[in-house]
Every structure is written in structure tokens, then in C-alpha cells.
Specification:
Blueprint: E1 13-14, H1 15-24, H2 28-43, E2 47-48, H3 84-111, H4 117-143, H5 156-163, H6 168-196, H7 200-231, H8 235-247, E3 251-252, H9 257-262, H10 267-276, E4 277-278
Parallel strand pairs: 1-2, 3-4
Helix pairs in contact: 1-2, 1-3, 2-4, 3-4, 4-7, 6-7, 6-8
């Protein structure tokens, strides 16, 4: 990274303080802005890694706006993608996932200390991607005369962040390699359906998101395997043990094998996942 000239008295931004501020921010536009500013500070070499005096807070709920209303997944109404309202609800659900993903990426930075510098670089980059995805989807919603918050949503992604807050290895295994990898599995069919409906702008956005998410899952795969090596663990049985412990040994079909291979899954993992996979409810 190239050093930059700084004025006398300039104070570098602390990576953990940046992360905590971004997680706590409720306004979506400001959360995205702070994330972009943090990425720029990183690129300009004005981020430092000194440990705060206190460890990470327990965060039961990250900052988020009053809307959307959060409900259990079973209470979300089913809408047909072919209608304008249904398509807006679908894009809203994706926007909500991306909003949560900003918080998840920042929490991976904030919560887990003493990791290599490249780890923080990776997850800061993921946070910036997720903020860009959210902005693209929100702009598309506005094209359809809707906005983020217009439909109810659920909060399953953050629940897994809370459950894995104790261990970076569990976090890398279960958030990127299970929850985010689910997007790799289902997005191609979404793209196909939107293309059939002639919604090429939404297709363009989902194509961008799919390619970026392959990289995000690969990032999780890479750090999961790094942590397994550090702890003297075999990645395959460790991954399967965590799926059994946190997900009762269940994963859902379909499995996008080609995308998962690009995202760091090995053939043996995919064979075992296929045996565990069940039809979605």
C-alpha cells in the first residue's frame, strides 16, 4: 500500500472504530456512505489496527431503520414475480439481505481481533460490495415506485451472526459458506425468471451480485481453511460438524456446483452436501 502525505496532527481512522460506527448506523444511506469512506481510507493507507482498550460489544441488534417491519419468515406473504407488486417485493427481499450483509461483513471485522491484516482488507472489501449491491437494488425499487421499507422482512441472517459471535471459525463456516452460498444456488433461477419477464435491468443487477458473491463465499472458504490449519483441524469434518451443530445437518437444494467450486468448495464437500440437501419448504 502506498503511503500518503498527511497534515500535521492528522489522526488515522481505527478499523475497529469504523466497523462499530457502521454497524450502529441506522440510516441505510449513511451506512453505505460510511462504508465507502472507510474503504477509501483503507485505499489511502489511513486506517490503523491498534486494539481498542475494550473488547467488542455484544450486538443483539445492529442499526437499522424503523422500517421494514421484521416478522418471522413464515409470516412473509407470497407474491407472484409476474406482477409489478410481486417483483418489487422480491427485489425488496434481496435489498434487505444486502443491507444485513453490510452489517455481517462489518461484524466480521469488528468482532474478531488478532487476525492477519489481509483478513480485515477482505471483509472491508466485502462490506463495500454489499453496500453497492444494496444501493443498486434500492435504485431499482425506486424505478418501480417503491423503496426499502415498503414490505415486511425477516432477520435470519443476523441471528446467525449472534450465534457465531464466539468463534471466527464458526462464523467463516456458517455465514459465507452456508447462508451466503445459498445465494449462489438460487440466483441463477431468479435471473432466468426475470429474463423471461423482460426485466433486463434487474437481470443486470443480479448478474453483478452473483459474480461478487462468488468472491465473498470464496473469501469465507479461504479464511475457514486458514483457521483450520492454525488449529490443526481437517476442514471437511469440521465443516460438517458445524452444519450438524447449528443447522441440524440440513442444507437446501438446489446446489450450484459450478459456482461453489469457484467459491472454494472441494469435490468431497459437495458430495457430502448433496447427501444432506433437502427440497426447500
Amino acid at each position: 500500500m502506498t503511503a500518503v502525505n498527511r497534515p500535521t496532527g492528522f489522526h488515522m481512522r481505527n478499523i475497529f472504530e469504523c466497523a462499530r460506527e457502521c454497524i450502529a448506523t441506522a440510516d441505510p444511506d449513511r451506512k453505505c456512505l460510511l462504508t465507502r469512506e472507510a474503504q477509501q481510507a483503507w485505499q489511502e493507507n489511513v486506517i490503523d489496527f491498534s486494539m481498542p482498550a475494550l473488547g467488542p460489544d455484544d450486538i443483539a441488534d445492529p442499526g437499522r431503520p424503523a422500517k421494514p417491519q421484521l416478522v418471522p419468515p413464515s409470516q412473509l406473504p407470497r407474491r407472484k414475480l409476474g406482477s409489478g407488486e410481486g417483483r418489487a417485493a422480491f427485489l425488496h427481499a434481496l435489498a434487505h439481505i444486502e443491507f444485513n450483509a453490510i452489517n455481517l461483513a462489518w461484524d466480521a471485522v469488528y468482532r474478531f481481533r488478532d487476525m492477519p491484516v489481509d483478513y480485515y482488507s477482505d471483509w472491508l472489501g466485502v462490506a463495500a460490495d454489499e453496500a453497492r449491491h444494496f444501493a443498486l437494488l434500492r435504485e431499482r425499487l425506486r424505478d418501480l415506485d417503491h423503496d426499502y421499507g415498503d414490505f415486511p422482512a425477516h432477520d435470519g441472517l443476523w441471528d446467525m451472526a449472534v450465534r457465531t459471535a464466539h468463534d471466527v471459525l464458526a462464523r467463516m463456516a456458517l455465514v459465507p459458506r452456508v447462508l451466503e452460498a445459498r445465494g449462489l444456488d438460487v440466483t441463477p433461477s431468479m435471473i432466468s425468471r426475470l429474463r423471461q419477464l423482460g426485466d433486463m435491468e434487474s437481470v443486470r443487477i443480479l448478474d453483478i451480485i452473483l459474480q461478487d458473491e462468488i468472491g465473498h463465499v470464496e473469501c469465507g472458504s479461504r479464511w475457514f481453511k486458514h483457521l483450520c490449519r492454525e488449529r490443526g483441524l481437517e476442514p471437511l469434518p469440521t465443516f460438517m460438524t458445524l452444519i450438524d451443530e447449528f443447522l441440524q445437518g440440513r442444507v437446501r437444494r438446489p446446489l450450484n456446483l459450478e459456482a461453489r467450486i469457484k467459491a472454494g468448495f472441494c469435490d468431497n464437500e459437495l458430495e457430502l452436501l448433496k447427501t444432506l440437501a433437502m427440497e426447500p419448504a
